[in-house]
Amino acid sequence: MADKHPSPYDRDRAVSGGRMRRASPLAGLAGKTTGEAVVAALRRRFGAGDSTEFHVRTADRYADLLGRSKGVLMKAGQILSFVTLGSLVPPEYRGIYQAALSRLQAEAPPMEPEMAAAVVEAELGSPPEVLFAEFDPHPFAAASIGQVHAARLGDGRRVAVKVQYPGVEEAIRADLDNTELLATFLQLARSLVPGLGRLDVRTVALEVAERIGEEIDYRTEAAYQQRFADAYRGHPFIHVPEVVTELSTRRVLTQGFVEGIPWSEAVRADRSLRDRWGEVIYRFAFGSLRRLRLFNADPHPGNYLFHPDGTVSFVDFGCVKHFTADQVSMMRSIVAATIAGDARAMWRMFVEIGFVDAVHGPDPADLLDWYREVLMPLIAPQPFTYTPEFAAEVVQKEFSPYGPWSRVIRRVDLPRDFVFLTRIDLGLTAVLGELRATGPWRAIIAEYDDGAPPATPLGEAALWHENTGRTTS
After folding, report:
1. If residue 232 lies in a helix (H) or strand (E), which one and from where to where?
2. Sequence ranges of the domains in the chain
3. Active site positions, annotated
4. pTM, full prediction
């Protein structure tokens, strides 16, 4: 008699497919969407009605296709869902895309309890009821490539156990070998706004593939998360859950359980609290880059849990980008040159890291003017308030070859090492924009880059904590 429950590693049968068969629907959808977007834009220009129907239809098509695709397509869709696709469309339609694409995060079908238990036993050597004092067989959250169960250890500690969906690794690794598939998918972002910009999709695809390739091995995620947890242990306003190493493997990750205010409620909180949360997120991002040379490259609001005292817990470290000391030093120098208005120094550094060509690159003055727009939160009078409108404007100014900075953007390249830095910047801008966070951002950056005195009470608390030696950051 056949077992009524499938093997925990057989799900790849349901998500496999030939390279051309998997890429073709994407190419067709991108082409169709581009044509419809042109028509919709012309209709708006000549006053022939709005484009709501087009955007609703397009968003649903993407969400449905990516949700069925599984593998790399679903993961890449999640990577782009909150920021890139949402910010590239007109503000009045942005909510349509965010709502549709959020299904990639919220509607992943859960594993049956027996299958989740089978994965845990296969990875850890014993069933959940033996390994844990308590283990809820029903997940409380869906992660990008797995689901999360609440549990309790024998010593009473509450933990969250992330269990990878069977077959996902096999499906993703097969897709990662298909560069045409991922490159075709990345055309989707450009198809939403015709002529979006100069984007070497193959270069982007390689970097996205590398980050996704790391994420499907929970051991890599656990190692990065523990580095962050070590650096911020006991921090006054940043919390990273500890990893339970002995209960973490390639497909199971056990970490401390965190409760907090979800994003949907955080964006409706009092302004003072939103400002504080925004500053915490900002300090975590740039403090980690400057001091640890690490960037959590998935600035999705679902990866933050907010607390009434103004602290923030950071979860999900599956997508982390590591930079060299020279790269971080160069980033700091570019920011300093931009703020100082030193066009020639900034241009030289852009040439050195490969953003512009020394012969065919843009004029230094034009390059400076363009990048000052990108760094407006540091250039504008302080304090500066992030808004959703500003976030969308940054996307257009940074990428659109038909906008006011087309003469610059068409001569700017995107080196592979900085693909995710751009996404992190856009993601952070979008998160702070949704919070409508206000802060003295230039003075905060000066703390990290110039050793300036603390600009806010949070800066004072962080400095005191570092001086006590209770954190390694």
Report:
1. helix 218-232
2. 12-105+179-196, 259-473
3. 298
4. 0.76
